[in-house]
């Protein structure tokens, strides 16, 4: 499991470093709300695959619940506030990759099998595809 965590972390860190080029944006409640909701969805899906381990799955569901509530509250405040409501595909891609690394980090005490790694690896792959598509479209 450590090797998978290290590989996912290296991929995510390299994508984050590449995404920092020409990066200038301000904090937006809309962006934060969408990112929190994406994190909560990934954590909830990750908790389904390890439902037999109560400690880890309950921790993931607790974190996902808090993030989902905060994300919805931030989205409601952003709709009340008449700011620009757009999020870049690159932000979603980085969010998915970081969430997959966090998910694998929370699963460290579990055994290494394919079912435990479906959600983190699919999240990392989808995030990497979104990142590459966004990078190609912005050239």
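^ structure tokens above, recovered residues below v
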């Amino acid at each position: 499991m450590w090797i998978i965590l290290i590989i996912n972390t290296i991929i995510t860190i390299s994508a984050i470093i590449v995404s920092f080029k020409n990066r200038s944006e301000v904090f937006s409640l809309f962006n934060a709300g969408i990112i929190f909701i994406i994190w909560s969805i990934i954590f909830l899906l990750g908790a389904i695959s390890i439902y037999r381990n109560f400690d880890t799955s309950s921790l993931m569901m607790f974190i996902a619940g808090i993030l989902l509530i905060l994300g919805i509250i931030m989205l409601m405040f952003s709709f009340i506030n008449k700011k620009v409501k757009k999020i870049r595909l690159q932000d979603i891609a980085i969010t998915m990759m970081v969430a997959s690394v966090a998910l694998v980090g929370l699963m460290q005490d579990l055994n290494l099998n394919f079912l435990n790694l479906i959600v983190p690896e699919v999240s990392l792959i989808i995030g990497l595809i979104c990142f590459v598509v966004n990078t190609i479209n912005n050239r």
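The radius of gyration is 16 Å.
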